[in-house]
Amino acid sequence: MTQPPGRGAGGGSEGAYRALVGLVMAATVRIHRPEPGYAPDGSDRGFLGSGFFIAPSWVLTCAHVAMEGEGRHVNVVFKPDPGSAETAVEGTVVAALPESRPGGSGAGGWPAPDLALIRLLRPVAHSCMYVTERPAGMFGGGSVLYAGWTDGGSGQLTRFSGRCQVMGTFGDWAEDDEQMRLDGDRMYPGLSGGPVVDLARGEVVGVLKSRSDGATGGTSIGVERLRTLPVPPGAVAAESDDPYQAVFHAHDRYHADRHISSVGTERTWADVQRELGAGAGLALSPQQRVDLLGRLAELPPPLSTRSLLGLLDRLPDTHPSEHHAAPRGWRDGLGALYDAPGGDGALELVLRYCMSAISAERPYVLPSTQDAEASLWDWVKRMAEERLSRKFRHELAGLRYSDRHAPGREHARTPAPTLESARTRSVPFVLLELEPRGWEPDRYDWRIGVGRHAGDVLPVAEDSRGTARDALPARLAGPLAEAFRRCDEPASPAMLQVVVDRSLMDLEVDAWRVPPDGPPLGVLRPVVIRCPERGRLPADDEIDEREARWNRTVSAAMRAAVVDCEDGMRVPVPVVEELRGLAYETVPVLCRHGDPAHPEAAAGLGRVLDAGFGVALWRRRVAEPAAVCTEFHRSAARSVTEAGTADQLPRKIHRLRQGVHAGRTETFWSDGVALLYQDPHHPLPGSGDEFLEAP
Q1: Of 58, 227, 489, 650, which is the most exposed, with the fewest CB atoms less than 10 Å away?
Q2: Which residues, in sequence order, are CB contacts of 225 under 8 Å at separation 6+?
Q3: Nearest 5°: phi and psi at 607?
């Protein structure tokens, strides 16, 4: 049992220390070979070592642990909650430092920095550790907590934690082989890859690399060595192009979202850091730091390390390139400021750095970049108003004004197509209509056709004998394949429009595998939902409004509006009259629809349909009870904005589904998302235009 650090470790209490241990253990994992039939039962079969969650769906460990898997594939095993069963998830090694071990080295002989990043291949709920933005060269030493998995000689794997003292370093930071020397406690086999946590600050500073033979202690690698990951060749056009930026942006957004969210009552890392008496230098509290890092993570990364160093060198009393790996991301640059002179000067330095980040040259610009700059400016202005002089606030305002009006700072957007151009670019699509048989629950009649210009639907196949729901994918495989063959162009798969009653709008046709050994339909092509108005004749003015709303979404930039969730809490979807008051280019987003047992789920989506929206997004999966919705809200809004117009949104959702299938973590938020796509220029059967008569 690890003993509490006492009053000397950052001034924190025993309760704060225990809370820190709980946070660390919740995010510590073990890594196994992906052996067939593996069951996560605590046995050591295929056990390679330890690791820990560094960001959603990302694990940090040692290269000598991760690269012992089969073809860069491993199993990551962890316990989501202390009393829960173990979960095993497949992962792949995205990056290793170095990528290979020199011949003849033993299992523990992988040269420093000996770090690896593993990306999970499917989304799961888990905790993440807080990783320092300060390099190890700025870590003052003292007591550290370490954790991992080991059998301790018993043959049964169990989680383990201990305490050591930092005794200094060996190696050369310039050669990437500098390691922290740890002593004071025994380290067992299997702990390699586990976290090393600064007890005074409550943050991960290193990764366990090795243990001493026949003695206590071992070595640790500073997490800042991840900054040396290879920079992607060529132009970086998205955050996901660079694993380093992708991981740490996701890390900082994760911790900011959870600390700011009103969902749940458990202590966050920032809460525990405050209780430990920690601070981000002399300028920021842990809460202010996590908020700032979350806002910085919304910006595109620095253009290069060189540009970031130049930015820091222009600030007074900073020496960012001394004694440690050079900063690579905005968080790294912030960490380089913490040892600057104290008092108000320390905060002024941080705020000047933020202003430089706002005005910096970008490797790419997203539709959300301008909002991210404004959010960071709001934070800067608030901090200055609370603590700094009027003269300094005036200087900041001048910087902000000059930046917003500087030549070339405008954020270019692709011009939206006109309504006529959208119509002329109409392409064939496949229409699948499923009609429930009221007298035979869970059985359906169906029709498949090919939609073309002017609303014509050419029939391909139909069956009115009633097909069981579970049998639909196999039964429809042949007819769908024929319909797709008639529509698909090389590198341009046809859209599948699925027509279902309101009771079936959560049917995951995009997850069907047709054929059974193929990828899901939603990975192969855009799949959207349509809803017929059976038994209901809308009034003429309602039809006109629906067409006007649709025409606006294909001729102007869309914008998303979450209509059933506020501050992480479910709220009723507004009544139809209020929904109709939203701008015509609005795309309603339903965050809380995924619980079919809740009476508001179906009713809320029904009100969106009744209000005449032709485009809407909702997630069909039940969110975790304590899940934070901020990432879903943010990503859904960004995706709608990036799509631009309604005719581009199905392709955008298609790319997101491809990303989920490929294991790209930046797309996991969209797992289970459905898209309503009610194009009034392609009327549905039963709404005035039937399928053409089958031959």
Answers
A1: 489
A2: 97, 112, 113, 115, 176, 325
A3: -65, -35
Q: State which H helix or E strand residue 115 sits in.
A: strand 115-120
User: Which of 277, 332, 278 lies closest to 307 in space, CA to CA?
Assistant: 332
User: Is the distance from CB of 623 to CB of 592 less than 8 angstroms?
Assistant: yes
Segments in the chain below pLDDT 50: 1-10, 39, 104-108, 323, 410-425, 688-695
Look at the chain and count its residues: 695
Q: What are the backbone angles phi and psi of residue 552, rounded to the nearest 5°?
A: -70, -40
Q: Cβ neighbours of residue 459 under 8 Å, at least 6 residues apart?
A: 447, 448, 449, 691, 692, 693, 694
For residue 555, give the DSSP letter. Answer: T
Is residue 117 helix, strand or coil? strand
pLDDT at 658: 96
Neighbours of 225 (CB within 10 A): 24
Which amino acid belongs to residue 378? D
Report whether 506 contacts 620 (CB < 8 A): yes
CA distance 553 to 648: 10
DSSP bridge partners of 139: none
Give the separation between CA 429 and CA 450, rounded to whole angstroms.
6
Beta bridge partners of 208: 220
Q: Which pLDDT tens digit goes with each residue over 556-593?
A: 999 999 999 988 888 999 999 999 999 999 999 999 88
Report the phi/psi class of residue 152: left, alpha or beta, with left for phi > 0 and alpha for psi in -120 to 50.
Answer: left
Query: What is the rounded distance in angstroms from the CA atom of residue 89 to the CA atom of residue 253?
Result: 23
Q: How much is the pLDDT for 5?
A: 41
pLDDT at 453: 58
pLDDT of amino acid 540: 67
Determine the residue type at 375.
S
Would you state the pLDDT for residue 411? 43
